[in-house]
Design brief:
Layout: H1 2-23, H2 40-52, E1 71-75, E2 80-86, E3 101-108, E4 110-117, E5 120-128, E6 132-135, E7 142-144, E8 151-158, E9 163-167, E10 174-179, H3 191-196
Antiparallel strand pairs: 1-2, 2-8, 3-6, 3-8, 4-5, 4-7, 9-10
The structure holds fe (ii) ion.
Fe (ii) ion binds near residues 95, 135 and 143.
Length: about 200
Amino acid sequence: MQRTRTVENLTYAIGFVVSLVEAAPVPVPEPVDPSEPLPTGVLADIAAGIAAARPLWGAVVHHDTECRRPVRLLATERYEVWVIGWTPGQGVELHDHGGSAGTFVVTSGTLTEVLPRPGAAPVERSLVSGRVRHVPVGAVHDVVNRAAGPATSIHVYSPPLTSMTYYDPDTLEPMLTVPQVPEEPLLVDRAPSFLLHPANRA
Ligand SMILES: [Fe+2]
């Protein structure tokens, strides 16, 4: 008798929970605006993940003393990933990333990020391997290799870059806006998923 009552109570409880679940409103996902940058935490995860997957880019990064030759590795509607090699003395010049947010991580060597301040000396940050930096939409900065040896970094932009504006280092006034023409990303097909598997990492 006691056992029968216990089963009845349990059945009632399960039915009650099921009715609650059925009555709960089904959440409707927010529509995604592809022009909105991904959250900084997501960009940091992407940058760190690609940085750790050295077989993806180790053989294609250029350390060219004549000029920097960034390589576009991946591109989606929401973000793109570049690997950049820097020889000593190479830098970008003061710039922004248009309507894109940026995140970059140094994977070898040491880079210096320069952050201008109106009426004051710029702030400089020395970025060793593993340091992740976020560059919000509209922020102006420069990245320079002031070290004695080469450096490498992984850069994520969200949404993908469409323009960059360069600034006068003295007046901090915009000087030139350069449209960014998308290049075909180097990694296509199934190469990333294969190389990102832990068994295939160096
Ligand atoms: Fe930048």
